[in-house]
């Protein structure tokens, strides 16, 4: 019986280098080989300098030909503008659903304003159409739609070596916040459909949007389905989880912020303000305090007097 290749061997076989980033920036996947050199996802804008350094070091004398975004959340495409400026001949490909909003740059439709996040404007030259294939490095990669976390997200699969770039559709322990649900759009079923799709592809190695590359794919899908079932039974649990994720994400960039400033940001961020009490200033402060206390209890931050500190 032939032993399955290790993570390192599997990535080497398809010419892949993974830059595992922290949770503020999504992982970046550089694909090298005889065909176009490609980078999948570019991280958050505040980490753009680090992204450029990682890409330049890995490329050596080679040229970066393609930039692909699995979806257009700010932690996956925030480095696009910097990469486009550095590599003027770079061709950027995005999923089709938000193409008009990118071309006309609409930060509300692109969710940057509703989530209180930043993303410098960028342009695109082509689309990643589900059902098609794309030459990346030395191999052909399949493009698959992956609704749920984001209605326009795609994932990339290399069938010869069974390597999947899963973005936020599947992590080793779950999946990304189901953002359509925060806007009142039912999407939990689509999360399940995407998990079914991934199971059908039968990947051996998964490069997630966040966290380490992994190969225990079956158990990871089981864990994701269990988490999804919890959210389906208690949607309010998912909603509260999502709000805390948004606070933690911004804290990763700020590192430290005064409670009053955090409250002002929350009031001006629709995904949070829509969940706030509207009766009084005091009730809003208590609402935020409860969220921060829960985040502190899970060791996501520290409360030091009037300061909220990333942990």
Which key phrases capture this entry?
five-stranded mixed sheet; 2 domains; six-stranded mixed sheet; 14 strands; globular; alpha/beta; 311 residues
Structure characterization notes:
The chain has helices spanning 7-13, 48-59, 74-77, 80-86, 99-103, 112-115, 179-182, 188-201, 217-233, 235-254, 259-267, 270-273, 281-297, and strands at residues 16-19, 28-31, 38-40, 66-68, 91-94, 126-127, 133-136, 139-145, 154-158, 163-167, 205-208, 256-258, 301-304, 307-310. The chain has 311 residues and is an alpha/beta fold. It folds into two domains: 7-233, Metallo-beta-lactamase, Chain A (4-Layer Sandwich), CATH 3.60.15.10; 246-310, no CATH class. The longest helix has 20 residues, at 235-254. The termini are far apart.
Describe the structure in brief.
The chain has 311 residues and is of the alpha/beta class. Helices cover 40% and strands 18% of the residues.
Count of folded domains: 2
Strand content: 15-25%
Specify the biggest β-sheet: 6 strands, mixed
Radius of gyration: 20 Å
The CATH superfamily of the largest domain bears the name Ribonuclease Z/Hydroxyacylglutathione hydrolase-like
CATH topology of the largest domain: Metallo-beta-lactamase, Chain A
**Secondary-structure class:** alpha/beta
Order of helices and strands: HEEEHEHHEHHEEEEEHHEHHEHHHEE
